[in-house]
Specification:
This protein has about 240 residues and is an alpha+beta fold. The chain has 2 domains: about 55 residues; about 170 residues, Glutaredoxin (3-Layer(aba) Sandwich). It contains 6 helices and 9 strands. A 7-stranded mixed sheet has the order 2-1-5-4-3-8-9. A two-stranded antiparallel sheet has the order 6-7. Helix 3 crosses helix 6. The chain is elongated. InterPro entries: SCO1/SenC (IPR003782), Thioredoxin-like_sf (IPR036249), Thioredoxin_domain (IPR013766).
Length: about 240
């Protein structure tokens, strides 16, 4: 009987070890499956975010071409490789446009003052939404009042409307007052757009943002953009 009890204890111990091993193996398999599921879920979530991001970008911006202050056609294709700040306005604007353009130029000055290795190749761009009055010469003189860095663009009514539509910029000529037919205001969207070196819409800033805030945001955007591009080049 004693021998039988010992044998039963031995068998129970073997069965227990075998059972524990199976349980552990099952737990490890569950953990592995869970981690695989979690990784797949994270990848799907990341992919969904990326699709939404691309969809958002697709709704604003794109290829564009206008007449620069040298009277030549120029646009997104020629400006690729640089970060751009785009502002749509008109040269007869009494207050908002000058304030926003000064702020845009200040943002560029802040970023240009960074050490060489931290510098961001960025250009401020003014696009007129008043082609009737904003001739090439008028836009050239207007931009020179703010900074030699500021590039100005105008064009025909059709050209300007096409670019405004590309960036979802609303603009409407107000009623003409008095005897002077050129005395009118243009109501328009007051937003500064950030375009990346690939020519794609990247961000936008309203009137409430200060130059310092915008410069800080752009620095972070550029760091993320560069890190993402490095990963793409390395195949990560």
């Amino acid at each position: 009987d004693a021998d039988l009890e010992k044998e039963l204890e031995r068998l129970n111990e073997v069965l227990k070890k075998d059972f524990d091993a199976k349980v552990k193996e099952g737990e490890e398999e569950i953990d592995k499956n869970f981690m695989n599921f979690k990784a797949r879920a994270e990848r799907l979530e990341e992919r969904e975010k990326h699709i939404k991001y691309l969809a958002g970008k697709a709704r604003i911006g794109g290829d564009w071409e206008l007449v620069n202050t040298e009277g030549k056609l120029e646009g997104s294709e020629q400006l690729k490789g640089n970060w751009l700040l785009l502002y749509f306005g008109f040269t007869h604007c009494p207050d908002i446009c000058p304030d926003e353009i000064e702020k845009m130029v200040k943002v560029v000055d802040i970023l240009d003052a960074k050490p060489d290795k931290e510098k961001i190749p960025i250009k401020p761009i003014f696009i007129s939404v008043d082609p009737e009055r904003d001739t090439i010469e008028r836009v050239k003189e207007y931009c020179a009042e703010f900074s030699p860095k500021l590039k100005g663009f105008t064009g025909s009514v059709e050209q300007v409307n096409k670019v405004a539509k590309t960036f979802r910029v609303y603009h409407s000529q107000g009623p003409r007052t008095g005897k002077d037919k050129n005395d009118y205001i243009v109501d328009h969207t007051v937003i500064t757009y950030l375009i990346d070196p690939d020519g794609l819409f990247h961000d936008y800033y309203g009137q409430t943002r200060t130059a310092e805030e915008i410069a800080n945001i752009i620095e972070m955007k550029v760091l993320k953009y560069r890190a993402k591009n490095r990963k793409s080049i390395l195949g990560f």
